């Protein structure tokens, strides 16, 4: 189970792993079962039959980039299969936060300057607390790892960095294949780019489409009863693609001042994480890598 981190290449990793003939993955972008109350109430078999094409695959791989956020989700996964292999991709938390901020801004959910990423650290405003959770909290990996290890044995928790995945996806996948006891020599097409950044024509339409994708959305529930689920997915992806242009947007740059303040915020958490996993993470404390 790929449980995160959000904005750390989890979609690419899931698709790379899917190239192995012994692996079956879900047709949805995320497996919502452990997060969605509606999905969870129906039982795993219902979700599995609807989400997987290769139901007799030797190994089943699932991905939900926000699963590590709440103990409830981890508890549900552990209750389902405590022996499952956990893959956790970690990314420089400042870069992860900024990438998440850019995505939300690009799709029209927020419209504030990146300087606010610093302001929300000490803010008591309810909206800012939500922004903290979404942008900064997901990068507090030491806290999240403690929660993960409370539910799964250490030997089943495998941590990779976004930088490793980006520089040598083949090696990362081969290691995971070994962990899963399947042929590690299978070649994957690491040149293919997933989740490529594109310009959005209408932010309003993007917001509507994103809400429609949520499992709890009543319209989505009704639609899935009227048309086959796979048709629904193809239709929603097609509509979403129409709202994108082919050109990448010009990327906003995080100022050195804001980056430095965020680095200072994350430093103690990064240090604790480094000790927990026995890996050097000092590059995360640099203003420019």
UniProtKB/TrEMBL annotation:
Domain of life, source organism: Bacteria
Positions of transmembrane segments: none
UniProtKB keywords: Glycoprotein, Transferase
Keyword Transferase: yes
Pfam family, one: Sulfotransfer_1
Gene3D superfamilies from the UniProt entry: P-loop containing nucleotide triphosphate hydrolases
Residues annotated as domain Sulfotransferase: 1-210
UniProt name for this protein: Sulfotransferase domain-containing protein
